[in-house]
Amino acid sequence: MADDAGPVRRNALIALAKLDAVAPDRLRERLKRDRHPPVREYAAEWLGERPGDAETTVRVLAAVLARDGEAFVRANAASSLGEIGSDRAVEALETQGLGDRSDDVQRAAKRALATARGEDPDEIDLGDPPAPGGGPDTPAESPASGAPRSAVGRGPPSGGRGGSGPIGRGTASPPSTATRRTDRDGGDRR
């Protein structure tokens, strides 16, 4: 895992972890010091399954949850803290994870707390996920703006077909010919 290329280090970490051939201290070191965020992300993930010295691992994961600049690294640190489930892990989730600036990290912390407490994480209320692109709180997308939702790039308001662009803008697409069937007389039956 000494290669200069971050993706190579990430793939090496994943392969070694899947083979259970990487020591937790090596994972902690990668989590603390690697400059490539995906390496830290996967190191945080695997430490939840293979923490080694749990007290040391919780200390490192809590520090990452508090300080790492990448939300997906912090979210994996939160999930791993939930898997470890010690009192210190729960404390870190409550004090750092629930108040994180990222909604994704906050949701990961809520699920991790449920796991640590022996609850089903699928049964907890995570709140509403944020809307893509900033959500309806921006003035152009607000229902109070008077513009129909389809006029602001959100697609047709009632589940119609989207357009040709990557986010549903443009003219409506014609129905697919793959769904058209004909009866024996050649008539159209849908």
UniProtKB/TrEMBL annotation:
SUPFAM superfamilies documented for this protein: ARM repeat
InterPro entries: ARM-like (IPR011989), ARM-type_fold (IPR016024), PBS_lyase_HEAT (IPR004155)
Segments of this protein annotated with the region Disordered: 95-190
Biased composition regions of type Basic and acidic residues, renumbered to the chain: 180-190
Gene3D superfamilies: Leucine-rich Repeat Variant (1.25.10.10)
Residue stretches of biased makeup (Gly residues): 156-168
Source organism, top-level taxon: Archaea
One Pfam family per UniProt: HEAT_2
Protein's UniProt name: HEAT repeat domain-containing protein
Organism: Halobaculum litoreum
Lineage: Archaea, Methanobacteriati, Methanobacteriota, Stenosarchaea group, Halobacteria
